[in-house]
């Protein structure tokens, strides 16, 4: 692998870690990491004067996330194709799982506002699963550029 290519992957991984850190901070600040906090954010709470999210409001948040999650995930996984892992079947499974979890993280909010409150658990699970997958893929990339 060329040195310039390794350097670009390294910079991308550094920015990816900054993105993950800011995502965790924003999620914690805006929503929270508990089932009740997720429900309050989307369904509202009259006692705390928290208005429920509308479908239009959730759509306004979801639309840019669809593009960003898709592009970010595609670039991260695209780098993996150029490593020694490209011929493994597990890479294809990792690609499908990552995109599936990203879609679940984006669209679980629609299920919550439409009365399926158990999707608050799925929202939390998919958020942390996506973070874990991104960290795992980043680690695989870092390992592959440091040993070549």
Mean pLDDT, as a whole number?
A: 90
Quaternary state, please?
A: single chain
Contiguous low-pLDDT stretches (5 residues minimum) are none
Question: Rg, please?
Answer: 18 Å
**Helix share bin:** over 70%
Q: How far apart are the first and last residues' alpha carbons, in Å?
A: 7 Å
Overall shape: it is elongated
Structural class: mainly alpha
Percentage of β-strand residues: under 5%
Sheet with the most strands, sense and barrel status: none
Count of alpha and pi helical runs: 5
H/E element string?
HHHHH
The count of strands amounts to: 0
Verbal overview:
- The model has no long low-confidence stretch (mean pLDDT 90).
- The protein has 148 residues and is mainly alpha-helical.
- Helix 2 (35-43) packs across helix 5 (119-146) and helix 4 (89-113) packs antiparallel against helix 5.
- It is elongated and about 60 Å long.
- Helix content is 79%, strand content 0%.
- The chain contains five helices and no strands.
